[in-house]
Amino acid sequence: MLKKIGVVLGILIAAVVVLVFFVILLSRPVDEEKLKELGVIESDSLYVNVDGVRTRYVTSGEGEQAIIFIHGFSSSLYSWRACLGPISRHYRVFALDLKGFGFSGKPASEYTTGEYVDFVIHFMDALKLDKATLCGNSMGGGIAWRTALKYPKRVEKLILVDAAGYPSTRSGLPFIMKLGRLPGMENLFSLFTTRGRIRSSLESAYYHDEQVTEKTVDAYYYPMRTKGAMYAVLARMRHPRSETENWQGRISELRLPTLIVWGAEDTWIPAEDAERFHGDIAGSRLRIFQGCGHLPQEEMPEDFTSALLDFMSGKEKEILITERFPASSVAEQGVNV
């Protein structure tokens, strides 16, 4: 009997040792030079100091009107890559990695939405941008409209793409994100942040999951392997529901030209929220893309770009309608990434 107990204990100890080894191995940060070699930090990346945080961004285009693109949770400026080129032919475009995400710095912080609102304005200050249109997806959309409320003189127009804003009871979030909200997960979370899990999360965000390429997986996976990434992700995940509820009642105060773009098949933030934004923001325009999930700018970049340029040019100035677009041929052909 004692011999059997000894064998079991030996197996358990060996399992713990292996687990600890993998936690240490997988939580080891990948350095910047290696990321450049892998091509996930592109050669056009620029950096600026914002609130003491080394902040990555890209920019292109000319003209007086500037558009700042703000990514969603656990994402990066990569999310806008397919759209920036065509849009930059008409406007100055800027896409940044928010602090705690992508390849920007990841300091110890609470990572509240309020912090991010100020961070966006300080990013504009650092680049000497007095005003800009803010375009945000998911969490980035929530940051964008809150920035417009707090700093109305700095935001010219607003583009909300499957934006956060209303409390939701939908259960469409992937397993890895639900896991991170549990207490005591700091040391184990990296074990679940594998390429396979990242791919699974992306496929749940896309409607046409065959569009999720290896390059896209790399763009989401490697930022999670940088120093401080796990802390930032978990800190952001654990913000209370009240943070959304405290702001929700102010959405109707927005008084600026606003375009709302949504994927009809979004399982992360339902299309019903698009209708709520449209109803709450006077004079807003709404475009819902059929056959599209949570990331229209990635799944249907040509349609998204067209909608944005129409809005920015004022072609919709006198049209207060909701347009529902059919699935794009882009979804069938795939997207160049």
Describe, in plain words, how this protein is organized in 3D:
- With 337 residues, the chain is α/β, with parallel strands linked by helices.
- It contains 15 helices and nine strands.
- The protein has helices at 2-26, 32-38, 81-88, 113-126, 139-150, 175-180, 189-192, 195-205, 214-221, 229-237, 242-248, 272-280, 296-299, 301-313, 329-333, and strands at residues 46-50, 53-60, 66-70, 92-96, 132-137, 155-161, 258-263, 285-289, 322-325.
- A nine-stranded mixed beta sheet has the order 1-2-4-3-5-6-7-8-9, sandwiched between helices.
- The N and C termini lie far apart (60 Å).
- Residues 14-26 and 317-337 have low confidence and may be disordered.
Order of helices and strands: HHEEEHEHEHEHHHHHHEHEHHEH
Amount of beta strand: 15-25%
**Which secondary-structure class do the elements indicate?**
alpha/beta
Total helices: the number is 15
The main sheet comes to:
9 strands, mixed
Average pLDDT taken over every residue: 83
* Helix residue percentage: 40-55%
Number of strands: 9
Measured distance between first and last alpha carbons: 60 Å
Radius of gyration over C-alpha positions, nearest whole angstrom:
21 Å
Mass-distribution shape: globular
How would you write the strand order of the largest sheet?
A: 1-2-4-3-5-6-7-8-9
Low-confidence stretches: 14-26, 317-337
